[in-house]
Amino acid sequence: MTETLFATEPIIRLSFFLAVFLTVALWEVFLPRRQQSISRWVRWPSNLCIVALNTIVLRIVVPIGAVGLAIMVQEKSWGLLNQLALPGWLAILLSVLILDLVIYLQHVMFHAVPALWRLHRMHHADLDIDVTTGARFHPLEILLSIGIKLAAVAAIGVPPLAILIFEILLNATSMFNHGNIRIPAHLDRVLRWFVVTPDMHRVHHSVNPQETNSNFGFNLPWWDHLLGTYGSQPALGHEAMVIGIDEFRSHRELRLDRMLVQPFHGSVGNYPMHRPWKRGS
Question: What pTM does this model have?
Fold first, then answer.
């Protein structure tokens, strides 16, 4: 079974990616939450190219992937969960919850450490937010992220099926909660107790650093509530709020070449957590 899972994992993940991407993209067309300030034809080519580039880089640098490592971990009985006599379903559930907490803490770290913020800010430098923003990350951040994820898989002893489920959920919820999609307010209030909704995560992409440093969850919203980083709504409202960061407001920064060099030029700004914020400083 593990060999079959390893062989089919890329196809399974790609199928879910395309299905969720097309669903959210069509939802954005027919029920948008905000008026887009920049044409998709300007933003999408670079955002989709960075997705393709990251996929190629990961396949070259880490060919076995997280699922391959999880198979090895299971065979060698490494990690905490492999030392416990847990039912399979419970091991999978605990693995998904712990991995989601790890991703939350990693996200906070990328906002707290100025050098890491330089990498992560490319994600925030998008001047609009939609389904493609959910996969717009710098290749160096992607490589650091997979290193953290692989270490977590080995330490926890994540079952192979659990890491596949988690990867699918993470990609799907990232595209969903970055989507420029309208959900009725009463339904959003209920949903955001169980999943990070677009209205909840959009606050995180505000140009206001105080709002940027809130709502770090990608999948589950509970960590933000438990650890004091939850922000309900943007101060200016969802239609009027400004997306992006102060350091990169030019449309030319949306080009692929400019996106790739963003970590290496310009000021780190006042976005890293605990830095004093003054607009224009």
Answer: 0.93
